[in-house]
Write a structure and sequence with these properties.
- With 351 residues, this protein is of the alpha/beta class.
- It has two domains: 116 residues, Aspartate Aminotransferase, domain 1; 219 residues, Aspartate Aminotransferase, domain 2 (3-Layer(aba) Sandwich), CATH 3.40.640.10.
- Helix content is 42%, strand content 16%.
- The strands form three sheets. A seven-stranded mixed beta sheet has the order 2-8-7-6-5-3-4, sandwiched between helices. A four-stranded antiparallel beta sheet has the order 9-10-13-12, covered by helices on one side.
- Strand 12 and strand 13 form a beta hairpin.
- Helix 12 runs parallel beside helix 14.
- The chain is globular.
């Protein structure tokens, strides 16, 4: 037998399901409809033989992006989605057998990467009513802590942090020279950001993605934002050609069309509002997350509802094995048209 890293042997993965292209996808916090076809067609006109023959170059995209969010060029770096950003940051700032603190449940790739890299994952659980006690996070930060992760809004529950809560956590982490990662994957569905903290504190990085609002999950484009010194560490660690040219091109073109960004934000906002009102009319209990998803307590067994939606209507939603979350489904939100279709199917399956 060849040698295999013991951390890989100990890590058990559950990968996303395949063959989703023909389905109505409300299960992975994607835009159910995607970008406008005319926009995609226009961008693809720039994909020439020469475009395909050249190695990817980040700088033009990064200049536009740094201007877009109002920071310096030296404060940003692009990665192959936030999956790769998470790997880089835990490799760089984590230490073997030392602690990475997250809330639980949260995005699974944090604990997966902890396992793979030999880091100790310290999950801070939600209360039974799915509220979160900030004092428990503070208590979990100690001399063995190297990284603290705050997904804001968090996935799947959708809670957000106040400024005082973030500052308390950052200050406690700084006491032990620990990095705080603020994962703002769902930022554009929630207008509160902690971007200013990357300049206010020396131990904060913010991450954003083009997979959610910008509807580019297929291209894989994430961004890490921080002070110059921290970003230089990430540049040193990253692969030379980490982000592909299609992702960089589409990212640039989206930034060139702020009107499109506004339309995407408004479309999702109206779709979520429509869905929450209809859920309320039909006596559903749900958590109004600040991301592009809604956490719904179904009237009958959530897994039965999920199976019915798929088998009878080809609709995918996310159901949970976690005991705390078993009575819920998570549903991605999009336009009113997309959500009307979903709600029609849900009301037929859950009765």
């Amino acid at each position: 037998m060849v040698y295999v890293n013991e951390n890989i042997l100990k890590t058990k993965r559950v990968f996303p399901r395949q063959n989703r292209y023909h389905c109505h996808r409300y299960d992975m916090n994607e835009n159910p409809e995607g970008l406008p076809k005319e926009f995609v067609d226009e961008v693809l006109k720039e994909v020439t033989p020469q475009f395909l023959s050249i190695y990817p170059e980040q700088d033009r995209f990064l200049k536009k992006y740094s201007d877009f969010i109002g920071v310096g060029f030296e404060n940003v770096i692009a990665t192959n989605g936030l999956d790769m950003a998470i790997r880089y940051l835990l490799e760089i700032f984590g230490e073997k057998n030392k602690n990475v603190v997250t809330v639980s449940p949260s995005f699974e790739m944090y604990w997966v990467n902890c396992n793979i890299l030999g880091l100790k994952h310290v999950p801070v659980p939600y209360n039974d009513d799915l509220t979160l006690d900030i004092n428990k996070i503070l208590d979990a930060i100690n001399e063995d802590t190297r990284v603290v992760v705050l997904v804001n809004p968090n996935n799947p529950v959708g809670n957000v942090y106040s400024n005082s809560e973030i500052e308390a956590i950052v200050t406690k982490a700084a006491k032990y020279n620990a990095l705080v990662i603020v994962d703002e994957a769902y930022h554009y569905f929630y207008d509160k950001t902690f971007l200013n903290h990357v300049f206010k504190y020396d131990n904060v990085l913010v991450m954003r993605t083009f997979s959610k609002l910008f509807s580019m999950a297929a291209c894989r484009l994430g961004v890490v934002i921080g002070n110059k010194k921290l970003i230089e560490y990430v540049k040193t660690a990253r692969l030379t050609f980490d982000v592909n040219s299609f992702a960089l091109l589409f990212g640039e073109k989206i930034l060139d069309h702020p009107d499109l960004i506004d339309r995407l934000i408004e479309s999702e906002r109206k779709g979520k509002e429509y869905t929450l009102n209809l859920l309320k009319e039909n006596n559903y209990k749900c958590m109004e997350s600040k991301g592009n998803f809604i956490f719904i307590e179904t009237k009958t067994d959530a897994h039965v509802v999920s199976d019915k939606l798929e088998k009878e209507y080809n609709v995918l939603v996310h159901a949970y094995g976690n005991e705390m979350l078993r009575k819920y489904i998570r549903v991605s939100t999009g336009s009113i048209e997309a959500m009307k279709f979903f709600m029609d199917c849900l009301l037929k399956c859950d009765k």
